Amino acid sequence: MSDLSGEMLFGIISMALALVLWVRVLMNKRHSDDWLEDRLLERQERLDSQGRMANRPTATKPDEPSPTGTKKGPWG
């Protein structure tokens, strides 16, 4: 180990830096994947809630005529 040439030292340092860069890229990808998964879950929940609100049954009005067509009350 005492007779490390400049080329060997450069090679070792280059491989160590490549390893550090590779680990950083993998950590960033994991973080990005987690972030994207969270955003997609929030979007799906929002779309589901909008769908439930759109499919809500509408309340019938009490003054609508009856489906049989017969009028009831003092004027009919």
Explain how this protein is built.
With 76 residues, the protein is mostly helical. 64% of the residues lie in helices and 0% in strands. The chain is built from one helix and no strands. It has one helix at residues 6-54. The chain is rod-shaped. The termini are far apart. The model has no long low-confidence stretch (mean pLDDT 85).
Give the helix level as a range of percent.
55-70%
Content-based structural category: mainly alpha
Shape summary? rod-shaped
Please outline the major beta sheet: none
Number of helices: 1
Summarize the SSE layout with pairings.
Elements: H1 6-54
Which features does this protein show?
mainly alpha, single chain, rod-shaped, 0% strand, 76 residues
Q: Can you summarize this structure?
A:
The chain has one helix spanning 6-54.
